[in-house]
Amino acid sequence: MSSQEKIKKLIDLRTEAKLGGGQKRVDGQHAKGKMTARERIEALLDEGSFEEFDMFVTHRCTNFGMQKKKFMGDGVVTGHGTIDGRVVYVFSKDFTVLGGSLSETMAMKICKVMDMAMKVGAPIIGINDSGGARIQEGVTALAGYAEIFQRNIEASGVVPQISAIFGPCAGGDVYSPALTDFIMMTEQNSYMFVTGPKVVKTVTGEDITVEDLGGAHVHASKSGVSHFELENEEEGLLLIRKLLSYMPQNNLEEAPIVSTGDPIDRMDDVLNTIIPDNPNMPYDMKEVIHTLADDGEFLEVHRNYAKNILVGFVRMGGQSVGVVANQPSFLAGVLDCDASRKAARFVRFCDAFNIPLLTLVDVPGFLPGSGQEYAGIITHGAKLMFAYGEATVPKITVTLRKSYGGAHDVMSCKQLKSDLNYAWPSAEIAVMGAKGAIEVLEGRAMSKIEDPEERKKYAAEKENEYTEKFSNPYNAAAHGYIDDVIEPRNSRFRIIRGFQSLQTKKTSLPPKKHGNIPL
Ligand code: HXC
């Protein structure tokens, strides 16, 4: 063969490899409204930046006539490229090759990019669309999964890991995404479950559809497995780019500064009127977050799960900040099991990747009742407390209104090593609300008052007395638990200046192998 012929052969082989499982299957993929593995990568990365690895790898299986079912690259496309000029490593399962099912060699390809990402300190993005372990390979496919899982675990807290689910994700396939930082799923075509509807029916007798068992909406709203529910793949690929813009490349770096023209000393009169005079009236905490953030931008995480707490990313003065905020307009912003888990995980992500935390507090307490106790509210509440207490990134807390009881302690109070604690004049920092407190303190006295009207009057007087004394920020400020009571309209400036003053913060925890966070 001449040199020219050899080059032509290379070009032909590349063309063949790029077709994955062949044109018919590519057409089938498009007919379902899905992109191919390579199309997804092209749309995700900066134009022309993709460098592919292992295009010529094929599987080694000989069982069940597999010698005749070989495709170059096998069922995954891997490599690296850039997003906004920063290096990322990516693997994208190719459903056109044996349903993207995982072979030993595919696992080897995926592990290679994960190892490279760890070596250079770059994020790992996995795009999933697969039928799980390659059945013909048996135990080597299972071993391949475990190789990937181990790398997910070791990369956790070292480089950001993001999983997009754009098709089936079943059996062994679900656990790699579950070990990563963020999962997103498309409304059409994507589902995640450990066992599918047929197995469910056989084992438990339950009749359930694929969507109800593991569709995007179920995982974004009920289980909390998925952080984002997407209309389509394009939205997901753009979201990955946006998410990464708030993150550093690895745990030794800081997130990039993205300056805007939004002045840091912008005054927001709307914040002076947002808290209703009636303490039982709700308001939308999202409005507060949008008002505080640079250009009003808030990238909300877990939007449809545990809506009584909000978590997500903003920038303040160009710096990436993780926000955790009670939401008074949903379940009065109460802390329950799901809200505690949701917030704890987010706090730990931010802490692992040097993203400062802003906590906005308006919480009436923990949700009472047997349902919550049986579901382990003690453990889950402790988890959020643990996450805050362990976090060493700069932490600023602003109490807008209620901050009662155990929830006050949990929501990044001063003693959990929050760096700066501010309160608005509307703050109510106390052991509990006036009504509950008076029932406990004055119950005996009130039971002796026979006339109901008199009893009501007595209770109202005592509640007023309690409110005067406790439903304000000044008691806590008098103890130094609140550093300053601030005018709401001035909050953006005070928070940004606070974070600026904390930029050189250095704190460490006592040496240990790792803590034992209540799971
Ligand atoms: C080998 C597979 C496969 C698999 C799909 N294919 N899944 N090959 N191993 N796991 C092949 C099909 O045989 C078919 O090949 C091609 O991929 C496309 O699949 P279809 O079934 O035609 O596609 P579709 O109708 O869209 O259905 C997709 C699907 C279905 C729902 C994912 O294929 C399916 O149910 N697959 C099995 C899912 C499963 O049970 N996985 C769990 C594996 S055990 P041909 O050549 O015929 O077109 C596991 C445990 C690991 O993962 C535990 C680790 C901790």
Automatic annotation (TrEMBL):
Q: Which residues form a coiled coil?
A: none
Domain CoA carboxyltransferase N-terminal: residue ranges: 3-259
Instruction: Offer an example of a GO molecular function term for this protein.
Output: acetyl-CoA carboxylase activity
Q: SUPFAM superfamilies per the record? A: ClpP/crotonase (SSF52096)
By its UniProt entry, which Gene3D superfamilies does this protein fall under?
Answer: 2-enoyl-CoA Hydratase, Chain A, domain 1 (3.90.226.10)
Name the family the entry cites: Belongs to the AccD/PCCB family.
Give the protein name, as stated in the record: Propionyl-CoA carboxylase beta chain
